[in-house]
Amino acid sequence: MPLESRLWGKAAGLGEDARGADHTHPLICHLLDTAAVAEVVWDELLTVHQRSTVAEALQVSDDQARTLAAFWAGLHDIGKISVPFQLHRNGPKHGGKLLIQPLSGEPGYAFGAGAVQDRQSHEAAAHWWLVGIFKEIGYPSSRRRPQSQLSHAVAQLLGGHGGRFHPVVYDKDSRCPAARHPGMGAGSWEEQRRLHFDEVRRVVGVRSVPQGRMTPGAAVVLTGLVTLSDWLASIEEEIRTRLRDEAWAGTPDDLNSYWQIARSAAPRLLQRTDLLGTGFARPPEPPESAGKPGLGASMARQVPDLVAEHGPGMVVVTAPPSEERTEAALRAAAVLGHAAGARGLFYALPTGSAADSHMAQVHAFAEQALTGPWRSLLLHSSSRLKPAEAAEQWAHANAAGGVSPEPGEEWAPTANSWLNSHHRALLAALGTGTVDELLQAVMPVKFNVMRLFALSGKVVVVDEAHARGAWGHELMLRFLEWAAALRIPVVLAATAADKSVDAMLAAYRHGAEGDREPVTQPRRSPGWSFVDAQSGGVHLPQQPADAARASTLSIEVVDGTPYGAIQAALAPIVAAGNGRAAAYRGTPAEAIRTFRQLTKDFPGLNVTLIHEQMRNKDRWQRLAACRGAFAPNGGGSGPSVLVTTSMLEHVRGLHFDLVLSGPAPIAALLARAVQSVGDRSRLVVLRADNASELDDAALVRRTDLLLGTGRTVALPEELPLVLDEVYADEFADRLEGPAARELQQLDNQRTVREHKASGTARWLAVPGPRELDGDLGLLSRDHTGMEPELLSSVLGEDVVQVVCLYEHGQPGNRVYLLEDGVPERRLERGPKGRPVPGQLVPYLIPIPKRLVEGVEGDANNAWRGMAALKNVLRLNLKKSEDGRWVYTGSKHRFCMSEHGLMIDELP
């Protein structure tokens, strides 16, 4: 029986022929395209360690591993030889009839009534069928525990190329998969699967039969390679250059010729990704200042020697947040990246605003540390829609700060970049974003293993690693286990050493197959440690003799009305005619009100407002301006104050003489306080102000009791002591009467919440690398009742992206503008009248979902039908009688101004 070239693999987006029939790309051609791309991905994109991980697991040579990887990638879509796929109602047509319809009437291709209704996906069909054929050709197999052997592991891996692995297929089903899934078809359907399998194997040149086992590390690398190769081989405009004519029969000679065409096209496909050629330069010798005391000097002297002796691993830095700590972490990342042969870096922070503020420093680091071409993306909830547009807009907003002489030209991908997609963006050589991007790698979300693959070729830096609460802590421990198993170099930076930091050290050590002995991070501040990924050995090098900049933090707690206290604190600065202050308010609405009052009451005061409910581009521009106005040794003339919210507490590079804040947990107050400058920093806490709804009430109360009317803290040495004191179990024992009972009740509530959060996170997280037991399906397991809302709540408060459109014109001739009175900022329409998601990125406003509960917005069917816009709430604003732009829902009123979005609950 000859190979059937009418079996199609790709059709969407390929256009029509002269007869008006849809073009199709034969399945065998798509399989060979993918195999050819896999060869180039193996050669050009995988690191030396990734390749050796696969070869060692399979017990074959590097060349044999390369060929096997290409062969397996070429089999990924063999499940498309099935009735439901080939005869799908949305398949290629001519004159309204399916092109493949005549085939179903030919001898051997008959099928039963239930075949078309079989809901098995083509990915699952590949998994089910390949288990048996791999067993036939001699791959190791097991009847009782198929997941433990290579025949099942490779089949399950290939069945997961759509983003999710499928459950184990046991021996009784793999012997005759069509019995359970009639859609797979028998007769000629089965013969064609075998012919396609044999031809891919012959053309690619596979001669070896591996006898190894699929380790977790090899599974991650191969999954990434197969999925990435499929994505690249599916680029529609490239497929159109390789379409075969109707006379093409798919004979062995035809396939041999096509294989050469596919191989010649593969390098060009990979070049489209902006992924090739990036590496780490050899780090320079430690500067002369390395002989001086301090964190940076200590690490510069010792990290290179530790890495040279033990190989890459994890560096943990505990010190107050500062630019010095960031620089020390990045220098360590450069040493680890060069030693590991890494292809790039991902810098993770607790919030999107912190990521925005760090991008300039990370970019400056990359110019010195990375070699070859590299592309930088901004990755957090407000940028994930179109990461390239976000990076480009960020570059333009920061152009005045000298980020790039040609903003967006050299390092930010263009809007039509292949990387400009949610699932692909983490592959970019340089990423600055939120820790959520890491944590989703160990949650059962679609393409979670692609995240692990993307990170397995990079260095990961996690700044403020402890700042995610009980949910995030448990997930971070699981991520660090995987990071160590995949030999991902990691740098963790935390404010102070505590039990949570010790647990992170232990998790990485466990993932590196170290023992479970307790590990303790040096409690002295600043301090650091190193765990090598090869053995899990912990190394506590000579610690810094002193901090580079010691200071004294003066904390004053004041009563009275919050705004009155702010006025009183700012009055001396205004009277002196110079000085810089930051005022942290509990909500965006409070920040806006404070901004307006200060502008009115202090005409000579320069007042700047930044909060999270501003449009992306406005927030980026104001942050860029603040880096100049509130620079350590610069800034404008005259007194200045920045009015903001907790969104800026992890931002670096802003320095103040005075910091004002409402009640908050001690860790948050200290994060804000270290932004003040000089030997004597000042923090004023407004006791009567409202605490944030997101702050833990018990920690806020403990902090208030600890501080009393005020306190002086020597930084950095007393910082760990203060944190230990406020978290101490015996804290409540020093209280009496109602105060003791109140705190005990709040502590009990906090304990219950933390235990619930930790337990749910452990239940939700994917198994660690040692717990898989060969079953990749556990990485995609669905829990009963697990909804997207649960996943998002684990990552922090659920956020909705809002875009406000200004309504202009008369009914019937109405247009919507992205900016009031700017006609060229119309809402653009793409094919089929759909909006263009990329144009919205600068105008998105992140809003907590709880504030827009029940708001349906004004999206039409075309908008709601786009996956990229499903979490974007569209509000068509109308001009009210008082001249303001508003949207009024059933329960809320939204008002948009130059100060951002105000949301009021209706009575």
From TrEMBL:
Family under the similarity heading: In the N-terminal section; belongs to the CRISPR-associated nuclease Cas3-HD family. In the central section; belongs to the CRISPR-associated helicase Cas3 family.
Stretches assigned to the HD Cas3-type domain: 20-232
Upper lineage: Bacteria, Bacillati, Actinomycetota, Actinomycetes, Kitasatosporales
Pfam family, one: Cas3-like_C_2
Protein name per the record: CRISPR-associated endonuclease/helicase Cas3
Domain of life: Bacteria
Coiled coil: none
Spans annotated as Disordered: 277-296
CDD domains noted in UniProt: Cas3''_I
Keyword flag Amino-acid biosynthesis: no
MF term (GO), any: endonuclease activity
Keywords attached to this entry: Antiviral defense, ATP-binding, Endonuclease, Helicase, Hydrolase, Metal-binding, Nuclease, Nucleotide-binding
InterPro entries noted in UniProt: Cas3-like_dom (IPR054712), CRISPR-assoc_Cas3_HD (IPR006483), CRISPR-assoc_Cas3_HD_sf (IPR038257), P-loop_NTPase (IPR027417)
Signal sequence interval, chain numbering: none
